Automatic annotation (TrEMBL):
It holds the Pfam family PDT. This is Bifunctional chorismate mutase/prephenate dehydratase. Catalyzes the Claisen rearrangement of chorismate to prephenate and the decarboxylation/dehydration of prephenate to phenylpyruvate. Residues 87-262 form the Prephenate dehydratase domain. Pathway: Amino-acid biosynthesis; L-phenylalanine biosynthesis; phenylpyruvate from prephenate: step 1/1; Metabolic intermediate biosynthesis; prephenate biosynthesis; prephenate from chorismate: step 1/1. The keyword Isomerase applies. The lineage of its organism: Bacteria, Pseudomonadati, Pseudomonadota, Betaproteobacteria, Rhodocyclales. Residues 1-87 form the Chorismate mutase domain. It comes from Thauera sinica.
């Protein structure tokens, strides 16, 4: 071994010891924070977002800000686990994009529980069987997930976080090449998202829609004459080889998830608030409801309507606005909106996705 290599490795050993000592000190601080919280919510998404944003700003390089955030996400995940072990429910089975989104938000320390339906995720949170739930709410190409919107309206849960996940689709199989494949499994939505790539590269391979991407990967693991389209996590879970990476037709394809709980988040300085309201059935009613937002300088980042369950041709509106409900302009605008609306429910304020 060259002298220089030896010296650098000794230096790395020494730095690792320092990092470990500091990490242990940090973990002891977090343990003490946990004792002070005494059973109140241990997970504080607003604080985690502040920590990640601050370190990304301070980052001197050469590590990219994204790597720094991922490392500190894991550190906070382990510290939170020391304070109090957490359980997070998501739309299963294991290996789906919902699981990847959950891990992106919570790191790897919690116990992740796969549920069969989005409704089951809500029920698990409502019943207190888990601390948090992660549900998809919209996809940049497919649009809103209406089941989630309807459940948000009916359920007492609060929104305490958002997660944006880039959806990258991978072609995978047990074999090391595609030559022997006789069929391709995937969820119908993923087949649609890779339609052009498939037409160009595998026009004659029969496409078989199945219940989820993870199920497709599981089937491909059992059937050597097949391949699957799924996320990287599913390939890892089922020990499959990735034969072609990022084959989705739209490279910006992103799914937005919400974190639901029995509490929302405190102000972080860069927040969003989700609400749902209904308008009286008169001309100009929606405009009158939104007017206070504009007057108080509150930006709306989303507005979506859904037919109300209650009556024919009545609508409820889902809006996301910038800011926390405790910020003065947001509080004033919401108070006025509440007076004018037939119905208003604030679903929660939470930090804008920090990672
Ligand atoms: O600051 C807190 O409230 C903590 O519990 C510490 C800590 C952290 O490790 O920084 C851990 C968990 C919380 O979700 C937020 C931050």
């Amino acid at each position: 071994m060259s002298d220089e290599l030896l010296k650098l490795r000794n230096r790395i050993d020494h730095l690792d010891e320092e990092i470990l000592a500091r990490l242990s000190e940090r973990a002891r601080c977090a343990q003490r924070v946990g004792e002070i919280k005494q059973g109140n919510a241990y997970y504080r998404p607003e604080r985690e977002a502040q920590v990640l944003r601050r370190l990304a700003d301070l980052n001197p390089g050469p590590l990219p800000a994204d790597s720094v955030k991922k490392i500190f996400r894991e550190i906070m995940s382990a510290c939170l686990g020391l304070e109090h072990p957490q359980k997070v429910a998501y739309l299963g089975p294991a290996g789906t994009f919902s699981e990847s989104a959950s891990r992106k938000q919570f790191g790897s320390a919690p116990t992740f529980v796969a549920m069969t339906t989005i409704e089951d995720v809500f029920r698990a949170v409502e019943a207190g069987n888990v601390n948090y739930g992660v549900v998809p709410v919209e996809n940049s190409t497919e649009g809103a997930v209406s089941v989630t919107l309807d459940l948000l309206l009916a359920s007492p849960v609060k929104v305490c976080g958002e997660i944006n996940l880039r959806i990258h689709q991978q072609l995978m199989s047990r074999a090391e090449g595609i030559g022997a494949a006789r069929r391709l499994y995937s969820h119908a939505q993923s087949l649609a998202q890779c339609h052009e790539w498939l037409n160009r590269n595998l026009p004659h391979l029969p496409r078989v829609p199945v219940a989820s991407n993870a199920e497709a990967a599981r089937m491909a693991a059992e059937d050597p004459e097949s391949c699957a389209i799924a996320g990287e996590a599913a390939a890892e879970l089922y020990g499959l080889n990735i034969l072609a990476t990022n084959i989705e037709d739209d490279p910006n394809n992103t799914t937005r998830f919400l974190v639901i709980a029995d509490h929302d988040a405190g102000p972080s300085g860069l927040d969003r608030t989700s609400l749902v309201f209904s308008a009286l059935n008169r001309p100009g009613a929606v405009h009158a409801l939104l007017e206070p937002l504009a007057r108080h300088g509150v930006d709306m980042t989303k507005l979506q309507s859904r037919p109300a369950q209650s009556g024919l041709w009545e609508y409820v509106f889902y809006a996301d606005i910038r800011g926390h409900q405790r910020d003065a302009p947001v509080a004033a605008a919401l108070a006025e909106l509440g007076e004018r609306a037939a119905f208003l429910k604030v679903l929660g304020s939470y930090p804008v996705a920090a990672i």
